[in-house]
């Protein structure tokens, strides 16, 4: 198998932007050569509550489910989900002022983008 270039962003939950604290909760990976865009996430509610006791964990999970829907092209995600994969990734990696924020874009090479996504989620999120 040949290795293909990919890009990814780590999704961060920022419960209180004024404190600039965050917890990694997911990863979005795009590989143009494999026509691949997907997200993988895990929310540790106890760790989030340690950052901010009043955080709405369900809201964080809903935001992450929206990311999943954009990746899959699910019509419930609106206009973003109807775009080509590269534009969907662009939408997901754009800076936001919400509780769920993407980190910087990183890249790499992989023969299996789906396996690489799970590896990154395990390593960077837990």
TrEMBL record:
<dbReference type="Pfam" id="PF11236">
    <property type="entry name" value="DUF3037"/>
</dbReference>
<protein>
    <recommendedName>
        <fullName>DUF3037 domain-containing protein</fullName>
    </recommendedName>
</protein>
<dbReference type="InterPro" id="IPR021398">
    <property type="entry name" value="DUF3037"/>
</dbReference>
């Amino acid at each position: 198998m040949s290795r293909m270039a990919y890009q990814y962003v780590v999704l961060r939950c920022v419960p209180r932007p004024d404190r600039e604290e965050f917890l990694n909760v997911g990863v979005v990976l795009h590989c143009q050569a494999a026509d691949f865009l997907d997200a993988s996430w895990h929310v540790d509610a106890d760790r989030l509550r340690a950052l901010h006791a009043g955080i709405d964990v369900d809201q964080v999970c809903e935001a992450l489910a929206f990311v999943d829907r954009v990746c899959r092209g699910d019509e419930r995600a609106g206009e973003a989900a109807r775009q080509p994969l590269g534009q969907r990734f662009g939408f997901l990696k754009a800076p936001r002022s919400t509780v769920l924020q993407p980190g910087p874009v990183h890249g790499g090479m992989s023969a299996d983008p789906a396996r690489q996504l799970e590896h990154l989620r395990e390593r960077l999120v837990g």
